[in-house]
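Case study 2.
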Amino acid sequence: MLKKKLGIITLLVILVLSLVMPVVKADNEDKNENNQENSQAELVTEDNSEETSDEEAELKTDDSSKAIEKKDVYITEPGDVVIDYVVDGNLFVVANSVTINSQVGGDAFICANKVNIDNQGYIFSNLFVCCNELNVSGVIYDLYNISQNTTITGYIYRDVHSATNTLNLDGTIGRNAYISTETINFATSEDKSVTTSNTMIYGDLHFESSNNIDIPNTTVAGNVVHSSTSSNTILNYIWDLGTFIATVLIIWLLMLWLAPKFLAKTDYLVSKKILPSLGFGILATLSIIVGAIILLIVGLTTKVALLGFGLLMLLLGIGLPVFTISLSKFICKKLKNEKILITLGVLILTSIAIWLTTLIPFVGGIINLVIKLIGLGIIVTYVLQSRKKDTNNNPEVIEENK
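Prediction:
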């Protein structure tokens, strides 16, 4: 099913690396300062209310002697990256290989050839990863990955969402697994008669495959759902991702050319005005829908009503790219580096992360809609603020106010 995926994913990784490798190694230079100031600090997390198995790993207590980065960490590196210090925030990495053997307090976004989550690796939130080979020996809360080969010998507290050619399972998944794969290999005892005690999925297993895969009865506590699929499924995912990235880049270039003032303000709107933007997005959507319905009821202005619906679809369609561009610009502001190659690389990585987020089963569609509404609201908020500013600067209005 996934025979062509390796070449496509490798090409995507090479493209991203070629854009961002030469320009920055972010946040590593501050590591020594934080080491001196925070040698005894510990990463604090909220207790997980979900029930997990007795075999799940507990919070590592020996990390108190490690350096702590009390902020989001951004790294681009042409070689190998080792995260052996506590990250009290989110982690963004693009590199050839990435090894995590410490704690990450937030989400981890990784694009690399090889990714290892070692025994001491502990990701308290989600891991989003696009790579050739993924090895998980540590602990992750939720896993979302596109990989050629995936090996899980550690613990996933909740769900696994994986598109992979081969899945090797010798670990524990605390809840459900949603897998698109060609092969699933379950670790067995020496006599090959039963699976090992560590190999367990405590929820349901939903897997798409063109092959008939034998699932041991003792491995899955819940239901097993098999959906037959063709080799085009993953290619469709890759095509959708490429189309989305291309759309974002085209809209970004158009904004650079036609609306540079709007582009310059998007990071402020997404960071400081995100809730008002969501409100304006919902209000604008409801206003257009209600107005169009009224026009349809009247019957004399059907073309205008259809035009209103078309305009709404267009605005919602560009809402997702607008939000992606806004978030990317905000990240570049945090990096304090807005060079063109950095901006382009971060924009591509942000596009991949948001696209993966919209694929989450059940809630992905809701996330997609909310992001589109925020993107629409960003546009509406900017227009309203611009009109207010123009009105305040209008000599006639100033004279009337006097």
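The chain has two domains: 5-44+52-230, 255-393.
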